[in-house]
Amino acid sequence: MSSLLRSVLHTAALGLTLSTFAFGCGVDTEDDDGDSTEDAVRRDQDSLDRPTDTKIDLEPGLWHDNKLVPGEGWHVYHFTARTEGYVAFQMQAPPGHPNLWSYIRLVDKENNNQIWAGVGNKKTNLCDIIVYAEAGKKYDVIVTSQENSLLVGNQRQYTDGPYTIAVSPVDVEFP
Fold first, then answer.
1. 163 with 92: CB under 8 angstroms?
2. Which of 11, 39, 116, 171 is least surrounded by Cβ atoms within 10 Å, i.e. has the fewest?
3. pLDDT band for position 85 (50/70/90)?
């Protein structure tokens, strides 16, 4: 059984509802001040650099390889759902990498809701967020290293290394 399927089944078993945003390590939906999505995302980047726009639209089922380097510690991708259904936003970095732990922040551009997930399995260095995507809904998918979220004494973490990212359709059945 794949780790993604186990995650979905575990979530269902806990009685969680996978609706708009319901899976990840934390949720931040506060932003009632009317900022544009881009401004809100920049403000909420844990006080780090603005994310570098990759100008890449993710396509379901296709993985995209990239590398985080000093000065570009946050990358933003874009996704527009063509159909309705559950999808997994996934990021994976090499297992055992000393300073690159997968971290995704997902922004629903229409409602400016955010959800994030840090690496849940250090053996695979994979993290994912599963959402029910509505046709036409747009998302910004921001990736970095979980280490960038754990700054100590305002010291910048050194994030440098390869990763891959994808949006994958997920078949979900509830008993």
1. yes
2. 171
3. very high
Residue 155 φ/ψ, nearest 5 degrees: -85, 135
Q: Where are the beta strands (DSSP E) in the chain?
A: 26-28, 52-57, 64-68, 75-80, 85-92, 102-108, 113-118, 126-133, 138-145, 161-169
Average pLDDT over residues 169-173: 88
Q: Going by C-beta distance under 8 Å and a sequence separation of 6 or more, which residues neighbour residue 34? A: none
How far apart CA 103 and CA 145 sit, in angstroms, is 5
β-strands 102-108, 126-133 pairing: unpaired
- Tallying the residues shown for the chain, one arrives at 175
pLDDT at 33 (0 to 100): 46
Tell me the sheet residues that pair with 161: 68
167: nearest Cα among 100, 81, 98, 53: 81
Question: What count of other Cβ atoms lies within 10 Å of the Cβ of residue 143?
Answer: 25
- Residue 134's pLDDT is 93
Mean pLDDT, rounded, of the chain: 74
pLDDT over 50 (residue 129): yes
Query: Rounded distance, CA 74 to CA 140, Å?
Result: 12
Tokens in use for 63? Answer: 């993985």
